[in-house]
Amino acid sequence: MTVPSDLQGPDLGVCYYPEQWPREKWAEDAAAMVALGLTWVRIAEFSWAKIEPEAGQFDWDWLDAAVQTLGAAGLKVILCTPTAAPPKWLVDLYPEILPVDEKGIVRKFGARRHYCFSSPRYRIESARITEAMARRYGQHPHVHAWQTDNEYGDHDTIYSYSDAARGAFRDWLARRYGTVSELNRAWGTSFWSMTYSDFAQVELPNNLVDEPTPSHLIDFTRFSSDQVRAFNKAQVDILRAHAPGRPITHNFMNQNTDFDHYALADDIDVASWDVYPLGGLTNGRLSDADKARFLRVGDPDQTAFNHDLYRTVGKGRVWVMEQQPGPVNWAAHNPAPADGMVRLWTWLAFAHGVDMVSYFRWRQAPFAQEQFHAGLLLPDSTPDQAHIEVAQVARERALLPAIGPRAKAQVALVLDYESRWASRSLPQGATYRPHHIALDWYAAASRLGVDLDIIGPQADLRDYALILAPDLLIAPEAFVKNLKGAPAKVLFGPRSGSKTADMQIPATLPPGPLAALLQMKVTRVESLPDYAPETVIFGNSSYTARRWRETIVTTERRLAHFEGAYRDGAPALIGNDKARYLATLPDLPLLQAIIVDTLAWANVTTLPDLGDLRLARRGGLHFAFNFGSSRAEVPANPGATILLGTRSLGPVDVAIWRED
Ligand code: GAL
């Protein structure tokens, strides 16, 4: 087994592109990687044109030599199927493999990810190149794991509006609905004279005069998600046949909810994800003032949130396949991480259950699209800052006892892809952003020192004390039943249970199936502009909420209420001994107050607000990470054994300790 059950710190690795460097450099690079303390190397995800320069003409010589050179130096190779970048000759031979954008324009060759998941021809070609690689390297002693493709969804490539997608979508609808009259019912096609008499009449939901029915849109999203899974599964089946016992992974792109990551991961062994915290900050939820404050350290919660998500996606087995090593090239602005952040991010990953951290990339490329993207080495092979920090992590690992996986948390936050698609299909308010909301909730608990799991609605709920469901628009009946039977208490955000799987309003009104937990009905919803806050009274204090407000009719206890000219006194937070429902989107101070109160209600132990310090626990070890700009006291007991760092922790620093 290549993933050890107990570790002393993370295994370290790197992404390497032998096809981009002269062969004479490979052995020198491999030796330098080993000297740095790396044990894994990922290769070949964009190398199809080099492996098969012409149709059916394979050049294995270079890849044989690369695998051999890296392996002989002592590195374990993660070999990738190269399907993220089909070569030009293939595109010329079969132009129908190219994806089509929402406007109906073909996306051309010249970058990467230029393929349509629905293209039958591309499915054949993907299987063909996967099989050729798997036959050659499946049993190779130096190939220890496989990665399928690269970052499904990068560059908005999940949805393709091609002829092939249209045909496959019609077949998918026929399988889902059985009869076209059932589709007409589910989609509400009596509205605007949209009725179909045959599945063959259904178009893709692009280039319409006005928006499509949300049922049409969410079905296209479900269909596209299934296409990605089927595409991936076809590669996995081939790899399993030729490379038995080698773990298969895919490197997910965080913040991407275009397809169901839980479902795809059912077919693989390890979930990997690609960690670019500073790009995430730029595109993220924080105010400009906080973005400036965290410019070189990233959002203190966004990376941890995703580690916790992919730990669930990978059923406990998670790797970082690409870790940001310095400035990147692709965000609106690309600042450098503070010195020490690459080390901090590496320990953060480990603390959240990651077993292997691989840096992107070994050497900065002086050519092509990513020449501004840092690596561990500068283009002239001089070690860059990240190299120094990786060497430090490699030394520090020796200070730790061997520890096992991360334990289940007491608190879980639900992230449901169908619900994300539901709000995207019918947003109702321009600034309703569920991934920001979920992260705000997560952050509010994290700053109280609480560990969380991110879970899907299918998860086993038995051991949790508290479930947070910030945006469960489509609440599956089975989830509600499990929740009812579990000891956990639950806090729901606005819009929970507000849509059926068909994207309709539940017959009993929202929150639909949640009526099994809460005596309430939502009789009106409104979305509001950011500049118009609502006043909410919670406890004895006055706070603000924004963007979303619901009118609730309920016999449950009123825990917070709206104040003002419009429906003064209407409930803003209600609940009973099992469940609570929030009828608005609180600004951060109110959210923090509600989360503090809710954690206490669920008997979860918390610490006073940690500010910019974050904590995590794994095995018997406690970790603290200082994202702030001043020293912070680590909340270790007086008798704790400090294994790394100090109790008074400087900025960009890490402490690890044992309580015994
Ligand atoms: C990732 C991608 C890599 C590289 C990297 C740059 O999204 O998987 O191939 O482009 O970004 O940060």
Key features of this structure:
single chain, alpha/beta, Rossmann fold, Immunoglobulin-like, binds beta-D-galactopyranose
Verbal overview:
With 660 residues, this protein is α/β, with parallel strands linked by helices. It contains 18 helices and 25 strands. The strands form four sheets. Strands 9, 10, 11, 12, 13, 14, 15, 16, 17, 18 and 19 form an eleven-stranded mixed sheet that branches. The longest helix is centred in the middle third of the chain and has 29 residues, at 214-242. It starts with 10 loop residues before the first strand and ends with a strand. Bound molecules: beta-D-galactopyranose (GAL). Residues 150-151, 154, 274, 276, 322, 328, 330, 360, 370, 373 line the site of beta-D-galactopyranose.
CATH C-level class of the domain at 411-601 is: Alpha Beta
**Could you say which overall geometry the principal axes of the C-alpha atoms support?**
globular
CATH topology of the domain at 411-601: Rossmann fold
Q: Per CATH, which architecture of the domain at 411-601? A: 3-Layer(aba) Sandwich
Describe the sheet with the most strands: 11 strands, mixed
- Secondary-structure-based class equals alpha/beta
Low-confidence sequence ranges:
none
**Whole-number radius of gyration?**
25 Å
| Ligand types | beta-D-galactopyranose
Total strand segments: 25
Could you tell me how far the N terminus lies from the C terminus, measured between alpha carbons in angstroms? 32 Å
Q: Kindly estimate the percentage of residues that lie in beta strands according to DSSP.
A: 15-25%
Work out the helix count: 18
Helix content: 25-40%
CATH superfamily of the domain at 411-601: Class I glutamine amidotransferase (GATase) domain
